[in-house]
C-alpha cells in the first residue's frame, strides 16, 4: 500500500524558497544599515551651508554658462582627514599665481609702427641683390620684444566702412610724405584732422573707378567669373578699394619702403592688404589662387632674371586668369619723355615682356591706350606640345606648386593638373560668384586633399553657420563695428563664408605647418588668405585688424614656441578696443587668460555653442583702449 503524505512535494519546495529569500533580504538590509551608519559616523557635519557647497566647487566664480574663469578659488582652509571623500576635480589646470599676474609694459613710442619681420634697420644687414633686404627677416629669439606696442597719443577709432574707403584720421597714421610726394597723382590728401583718398593713382589720374571701367570694357569684371585678384605694388590700394563695389576681392601688397606706410593706409581704409615684395621668394599664396593679377607702374622688372617674376605670377594665376599691365613700358611712344627713358630702352623692355609671356603660353588679349592684358591658358595640353620645340622655360618636375612659405622662386613653369581635352579647365572649373562661396571646391571634389570630402565641406559650413549665429548674440557683426577680420586657423574658410553677408572681409590664414594645406580651397571659394607660421610675426602694421579669430591655434603652437609671444603679436595687430575669439580646450584657454590678464585685455570664458558638455570652450577678449605718451623734445 502506498505511503500517504500529509501535503504535496510542490508545497514543501515553495516553503524552502521563501525562507532562503527572507534570509538573503535580511542580511542585505543589515549590511546597508551598517554602511549608512558607518558613513554617518566618519563624516563631519558642515559648520555652515557655504562649506557644504565648497566641497563640490560650487563657489568657483563663473562666466557665461558656468565655466570657471580662473582656478584661484579654493575649498575650506581646514585640511580634510584621510577618510574624507575627495570631491575636487583632478583634471583642472593648476595656475601658479604666487607671483600675481605678469604685467607687460608698453614699448617705447619709437616702436609704434614696428613691423618685426620687415624692420628696415634689420633689413639693411641683408644683401640688396633682387631686393632681398626687403623680404621677411624676423628677429631672433633674443631680439623679441616683451612689451606691448603703443598706439599714437591721439589715436581714434577708424571711420566705419564704407566711409573709411575715402577717409582716415591723421593722428592714427601721422605721415604726410605720400600727400606731398604723390600730390599730382591724387593718391592721398590732408584735410584738417584727416586724410582723404580721392581714388587716384599713378596711371589712373581720372580715379580708380574710371580706370576699372576701362578694364571692364576689355575683360568681364561684373559677370562673377572674376572674383579674386592680386595687386602687385599696390600703393594705398585704391584699385582694390574700388573693385569691392564689383564684388571682386583683391589681395594688395607692397613693401615697406620709401613710400612710408602705404599698406598701413590701405588697411586703415578697410581694404585687404599685406606687406610683401617680389624679390627672391615665392609669394605666400597657393598655386591657381587668383582670377586676375594687376601691375600699375609697380616697377617690378618683369623681363629680368629669366622672367622669374612673371613665372611666379603664372604660378598663382588660375587657368584662364588675366594679367593686366599699365605703366612702363606700355604705350612708351607717348610717355617716354615723362618716364625719362629712351625709346629704345622701353621698346626693348616691352619686347622682352612679350617674349616671356609667349614662353608661358599666354595669349595677348588686347593692348589699348594705357592697358595691356594677357590671358593664361586653361590647361597645358598645347603648351606641352610647344615645349618640345621651345625648351625654356621648362615645366617644373616633382614640385608641390602650393608650397610657398620661405620657398625660393624658380624659373620653370608650374604644371597645371592634367586635362583630357583642350577645352577642359585644368583642376576643375569654378562656379561664378556668389554661388562659388558654397559650391564644392574642385580641390575637394577631385580628392586632391586627403581626408576632406564633399560631406566634410558641407558639415563645416553648417558648423560655421551655427557658430556665427552664436557669436552674433554677443558681437555687433552687422553694425559696422568690425571691418578687417583675421582667421588665424581658417581650415576651409567656413568663418569667412558665414560672414559673407556682412560688411567685412576676412584674412584667412592657414598655418604653414598644417597637416592639411587647405588655402587653395579657400581661394577656390572666392576668398583670400595667406600662409603663416605663428611663431613669427605677421606681415602687417600694428593696429590693422578689428576682430581676430583663433580656433585651435594654441593647441598647435603651445609646444613649438612661447605662446606669450603669439599673444603679444595678436596685441600688436589688433586695434584698440578690438576683439579676439579663442576656441580651445579649457586647459589651453586658462593658460591664455593668465597671460592676457596682464595685457590690458578684458576676457571671459564661455561655453561652446552646443552647450556645457562640449570640451571645447570659447574665450572672448577685448583689448582696452590705451595709447602711448607723446614724446617732448628737450631744448
UniProtKB/TrEMBL annotation:
It is a single-pass type II membrane protein. Gene3D superfamilies: Vaccinia Virus protein VP39. Residues 64-87 are annotated as: Disordered. Residues 70-82 have a biased composition (Low complexity). The keyword Transferase applies. Keywords: Glycoprotein, Membrane, Methyltransferase, Signal-anchor, Transferase, Transmembrane, Transmembrane helix. GO terms for biological process: methylation. The chain crosses the membrane at residues 21-40. GO terms for molecular function: methyltransferase activity. One of its GO terms (cellular component) is endosome. Its EC number is 2.1.1.-. It is found in: Endoplasmic reticulum membrane; Membrane. InterPro entries: Put_SAM_MeTrfase, SAM-dependent_MTases_sf. Belongs to the methyltransferase superfamily. This is Methyltransferase.
Amino acid at each position: 500500500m502506498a505511503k500517504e503524505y500529509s501535503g504535496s512535494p510542490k508545497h514543501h519546495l515553495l516553503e524552502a524558497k521563501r525562507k532562503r529569500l527572507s534570509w538573503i533580504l535580511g542580511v542585505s538590509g543589515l549590511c546597508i544599515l551598517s554602511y549608512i551608519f558607518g558613513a554617518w559616523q566618519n563624516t563631519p557635519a558642515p559648520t555652515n551651508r557655504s562649506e557644504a557647497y565648497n566641497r563640490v566647487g560650487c563657489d568657483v566664480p563663473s562666466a557665461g554658462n558656468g565655466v570657471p574663469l580662473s582656478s584661484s578659488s579654493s575649498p575650506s582652509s581646514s585640511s580634510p582627514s584621510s577618510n574624507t571623500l575627495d570631491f575636487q576635480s583632478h583634471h583642472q589646470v593648476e595656475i601658479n599665481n604666487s607671483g600675481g599676474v605678469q604685467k607687460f609694459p608698453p614699448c617705447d613710442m619709437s616702436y609704434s609702427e614696428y613691423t618685426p619681420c620687415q624692420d628696415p634697420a634689420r633689413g639693411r644687414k641683408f644683401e640688396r641683390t633682387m631686393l632681398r633686404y626687403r623680404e621677411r627677416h624676423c628677429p631672433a629669439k633674443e631680439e623679441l620684444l616683451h612689451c606691448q606696442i603703443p598706439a599714437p597719443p591721439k589715436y581714434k577709432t577708424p571711420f566705419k566702412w564704407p566711409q573709411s574707403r575715402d577717409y582716415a584720421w591723421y593722428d592714427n597714421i601721422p605721415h604726410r610724405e605720400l600727400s606731398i610726394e604723390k600730390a599730382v597723382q591724387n593718391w592721398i590728401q590732408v584735410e584738417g584732422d584727416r586724410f582723404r583718398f580721392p581714388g587716384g593713382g599713378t596711371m589712373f589720374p581720372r580715379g580708380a573707378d574710371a580706370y576699372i571701367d576701362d578694364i571692364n570694357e576689355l575683360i568681364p569684371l561684373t559677370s562673377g567669373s572674376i572674383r579674386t585678384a592680386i595687386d602687385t605694388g599696390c600703393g594705398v590700394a585704391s584699385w582694390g578699394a574700388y573693385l569691392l563695389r564689383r564684388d571682386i576681392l583683391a589681395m594688395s601688397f607692397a613693401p615697406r619702403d620709401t613710400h612710408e606706410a602705404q599698406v598701413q593706409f590701405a588697411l586703415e581704409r578697410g581694404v585687404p592688404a599685406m606687406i610683401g615684395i617680389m624679390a627672391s621668394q615665392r609669394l605666400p599664396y597657393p598655386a591657381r589662387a587668383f582670377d586676375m593679377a594687376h601691375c600699375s607702374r609697380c616697377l617690378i622688372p618683369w623681363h629680368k632674371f629669366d622672367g622669374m617674376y612673371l613665372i611666379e605670377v603664372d604660378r598663382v594665376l588660375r587657368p584662364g586668369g588675366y594679367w593686366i599691365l599699365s605703366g612702363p613700358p606700355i604705350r612708351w611712344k607717348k610717355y617716354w619723355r615723362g618716364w625719362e627713358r629712351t625709346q629704345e630702352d622701353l621698346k626693348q623692355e616691352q619686347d622682352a615682356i612679350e617674349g616671356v609671356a609667349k614662353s608661358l603660353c599666354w595669349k595677348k588679349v588686347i593692348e589699348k591706350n594705357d592697358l595691356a592684358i594677357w590671358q593664361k591658358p586653361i590647361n597645358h595640353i598645347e603648351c606641352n606640345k610647344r615645349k618640345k620645340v621651345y625648351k625654356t622655360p621648362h615645366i617644373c618636375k616633382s614640385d608641390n606648386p602650393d608650397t610657398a612659405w620661405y620657398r625660393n622662386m624658380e624659373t620653370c613653369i608650374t604644371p597645371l593638373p592634367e586635362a583630357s581635352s583642350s577645352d577642359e579647365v585644368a583642376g576643375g572649373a569654378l562656379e561664378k560668384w556668389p554661388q562659388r562661396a558654397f559650391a564644392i571646391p574642385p580641390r575637394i571634389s577631385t580628392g586632391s586633399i586627403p581626408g576632406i570630402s564633399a560631406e566634410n565641406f558641407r558639415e563645416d559650413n553648417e558648423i560655421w553657420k551655427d557658430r556665427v549665429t552664436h557669436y552674433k548674440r554677443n558681437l555687433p557683426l552687422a553694425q559696422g563695428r568690425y571691418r578687417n577680420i583675421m582667421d588665424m586657423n581658417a581650415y576651409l574658410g567656413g568663418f569667412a563664408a558665414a560672414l559673407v553677408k556682412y560688411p567685412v572681409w576676412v584674412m584667412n590664414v592657414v598655418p604653414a605647418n598644417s597637416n592639411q594645406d587647405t588655402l587653395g580651397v579657400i581661394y577656390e571659394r572666392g576668398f583670400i588668405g595667406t600662409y603663416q607660421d605663428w611663431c613669427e610675426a605677421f606681415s602687417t602694421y600694428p593696429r590693422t585688424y578689428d576682430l581676430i579669430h583663433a580656433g585651435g591655434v594654441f593647441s598647435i603652437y603651445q609646444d613649438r614656441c612661447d605662446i606669450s609671444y603669439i599673444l603679444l603679436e595678436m596685441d600688436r595687430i589688433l586695434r584698440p578696443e578690438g576683439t579676439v575669439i579663442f576656441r580651445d580646450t579649457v586647459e589651453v584657454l586658462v593658460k591664455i587668460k593668465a597671460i592676457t590678464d596682464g595685457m590690458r585685455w578684458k576676457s571671459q570664458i564661455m561655453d561652446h555653442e552646443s552647450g556645457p558638455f562640449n570640451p571645447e570652450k570659447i574665450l572672448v577678449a577685448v583689448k582696452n583702449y590705451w595709447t602711448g605718451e607723446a614724446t617732448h623734445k628737450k631744448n
